[in-house]
Design brief:
Belongs to the class-I pyridoxal-phosphate-dependent aminotransferase family. Keywords: Aminotransferase, Pyridoxal phosphate, Transferase. GO terms for molecular function: transaminase activity. InterPro entries: Aminotransferase_I/II_large (IPR004839), AspAT/PAT-like (IPR050596), NHTrfase_class1_PyrdxlP-BS (IPR004838), PyrdxlP-dep_Trfase (IPR015424), PyrdxlP-dep_Trfase_major (IPR015421), PyrdxlP-dep_Trfase_small (IPR015422). The structure is a single chain. The protein is of the alpha/beta class. The chain contains 13 helices and 12 strands. Helix 4 runs parallel beside helix 5, helix 6 packs parallel to helix 7 and helix 11 runs parallel beside helix 13. The protein is globular, with a radius of gyration of 21 Å. The protein starts with 17 loop residues before the first helix and ends with a helix. Bound molecules: pyridoxal-5'-phosphate. The site of pyridoxal-5'-phosphate has 13 residues, from helix 4.
């Protein structure tokens, strides 16, 4: 008798997220004594603000260590409600909000609750890689729509229109975009909304995780805010990870139609039982507290962005434009492809180039192949200035060594 296969057919083609694989590899190399500079990470080098940590500590001492309501504590839901009103003039009731383990879980719960086999989800590229496998895990098919650099890596209305089929259930709109840093203006979103208004059966997953990491002073707009007619079919998703440098606290949230939120809560009740009680107390302090930290940190990141972009553009074969949001440079490396490394190997793809940079220069970067756009690499500038300078020196040397 042959043993039954270990894995479900659901797992075919699903891999560990590229970010987690890179994190593990960098850690292994460091453990082996290598001085790796990690430009591939989604972590910020800012600490979580002190008053947020103090709130978590106080909550733990007060005994807030039990399960909370599956959908989040009423206090955090109220803080999310107030933040959506303050930042986006969006009015959601408590039954239209759910707190999740990072925005990752909000996105997945929504997809799992709504998708059936053969359904399609439109994902503009370049993209945050987990969107694709989340859609596949939910049994549906991602439909990737390339967004060209000459349009600022933004989705064109005509390309969206062409990608829509009778099977389209969702479109995912991330603003600003990881990995390109593109920031959709209100006008850009209006153009997308115009197409979507012609297709009332399509729902909108608006991912605003980097909404406060923008360099023009106001939170990135989101679709439900600029087109109220889309609000009844939009799920507005965000989280605390990037805005408040709370990556490891794992708090995200979603706001949308009550029926969808109820289904997401049902899934959550059967899977994670909800988010950490201590992290939820911390999130209240972050959302309710003084918000000037957001602008101050964005200004620091802006200076790092400008400096790093200048240095990267001095590297032979690389070019980039400073992004309007996020903390990533999306760097074109077409000028590297076809060159030969000192060990004789030819660099044929951005994945080869990333491997070369890791092995020859001790710099970990994210290959565009995993982000839906080649040949590019993504570099984080949420690092200390000295690290950015050293990383640029290594990149310059590594690029100059190619023939
Ligand atoms: C665009 C985007 N959405 C969602 C997430 C998920 O973040 P978290 O689960 O930490 O809230 C990330 C993480 O990097 C991201 O880049």
């Amino acid at each position: 008798m042959t043993a039954a296969p270990l894995l479900s057919p659901r797992m075919s083609g699903i891999t560990a997220s590229p970010a987690s694989v890179l994190r593990r590899r960098a850690r292994e190399l460091r453990a082996a004594g290598r001085d790796i500079i990690e430009l591939s990470s989604g972590n910020l080098d800012f600490p979580t603000p002190d008053h947020v940590i103090a709130a978590a500590h106080a909550a733990a001492l007060r005994g807030e260590t039990r399960y909370t309501d599956v959908d989040g504590t009423p206090e955090l839901k109220r803080a999310v409600q107030a933040a959506l009103l303050r930042d986006h003039h969006l009015d959601y009731g408590p039954d239209e909000i759910v707190i999740t383990n990072g925005s990752t879980q909000a996105l997945f719960n929504a997809l799992l609750a709504t998708l059936a086999p053969d359904d399609e989800v439109i994902i503009p590229a370049p993209y945050w890689a987990p969107y694709l496998d989340q859609v596949r895990l939910a049994g549906a098919a991602p439909v990737v729509v390339p967004c060209a650099q000459n349009n600022g890596f933004k989705l064109r209305a005509e390309d969206l229109q062409a990608a829509i089929s009778a099977r389209t259930r969702w479109i995912i709109v991330n603003n600003p975009v990881n990995p390109s840093g593109a920031l959709y203006s209100r006008d850009n979103l209006s153009e997308i909304a115009t197409v979507l208004l012609r297709h009332p059966e399509i729902r909108v997953l608006a991912d605003g995780l980097y909404e406060h990491i923008v360099f023009n002073g106001s939170p990135a707009p989101t679709l439900a805010e600029i087109e109220p007619r889309l609000k009844p079919r939009t799920l507005t998703v965000s989280g605390l990870a990037k805005s408040y440098a709370m990556m490891g606290w794992r708090i995200g949230y979603a706001a949308g139609p009550a029926a969808l939120i109820r289904a997401m809560i049902t899934i959550q009740s059967q899977t994670t039982s909800g988010a950490s009680s201590i992290s939820q107390a911390a999130a209240i302090a972050a959302l309710d507290g003084a918000q000037d930290v957001l602008l101050a940190r964005a200004a620091i990141l802006r200076a790092k962005r400008d400096r790093f972009a200048e240095l990267v553009n001095e590297c032979a074969g690389l070019s980039c434009t400073p992004p309007e949001g996020t903390f990533y440079l999306l760097v074109a490396c077409a000028g590297i492809i076809g060159k030969r490394a000192p060990d004789g190997r030819v660099i044929r793809t951005d994945r080869d180039f990333s491997a070369y940079l890791l092995e020859a220069a001790d710099v970990a970067v994210f290959p565009g192949e995993d982000l839906g756009l080649s040949p590019y690499i993504r570099l984080s500038f949420a690092n200390p200035s000295s690290t950015i300078e050293e990383a640029a020196r290594r990149l310059k040397r590594a690029c100059a060594a190619l023939q």
